[in-house]
Amino acid sequence: MISAFWRRTYWVFVVGIFVVLTACTDTLERSEVVYDNDFSTLDLAGFENGKLFIFQRDTVAGFYHNDEVSVRLENLPTHNMLKVTTEILVHDSWDGNPDDGVSGPDYWFFGLDNTEIFRTTFSNSPCESLFCLYQSFPNSFFRQNTPKSGAIQTNLPGLCLFGAFSNYTTRYRIEEIIPHTNNEVKIFWNSELKQEENPDPVCDESWSLARVTVEALVVN
Questions:
Q1: Rounded CA gap, 87 and 68, in Å?
Q2: Which residues are CB-neighbours of 71 under 8 A, at least 6 positions away?
Q3: Can you tell me the distance from the alpha carbon of 66 to that of 189, in angstroms, rounded to the nearest whole number?
Q4: How close are the terminal C-alpha atoms of the chain, in Å?
Q5: What gap in Å lies between CA 97 and CA 101, rounded to an integer?
Q6: Rounded-to-10 torsion of CA 63, 69, 72, 77
Q7: In this structure, are residues 159 and 169 in contact, taking their beta carbons and an 8 Å threshold?
Q8: Tell me: the pLDDT tens digits for 15-52?
């Protein structure tokens, strides 16, 4: 039989846990989309190093290889968090995690203002039982996930080196919620791609922006 003391101790513990969990729960009080661009209207307002091209009948921003592209947003409403959603197209022969100094690792990253927020790797290589070039996404670097893990579309042709082959452009969606309070922000994207054995590295590995959405949040 459980004594009254232990029953009372048990319920005090349960109530205490409930109070702690409730106190730690954040509440979303307001969300406002302050920027949403799929580049279909050819809008590059606020962009630095912005450029457009047609890929699979869609207008996208790119293509890029180890060069930064950014957008500056001003007059943001009152907020304490920003939710940044980026859809990117990873073109051609990305090699993921291998740290051989020749073909990888193939990094992609983004950030706000002067702070890097998220860094990962992608792999477009076939994955066989005896050979697989793993990637970090959907996690940050360094994690070992199979190529194209977390992708939202995988059946697209390459852009340049593998332009005649299907499954060599992969589409991903990256979402991050970041503390932020200023009324303006600079969002930047970049890569550190390695392909020392190819005389045309831009044709070998590149990426494009397919959509960028920014939401201003008030969370308490």
A1: 16
A2: 35, 46, 47, 48, 50, 186, 187, 212
A3: 10
A4: 44
A5: 11
A6: 70
A7: yes
A8: 454 444 444 578 999 999 999 999 999 999 999 999 99
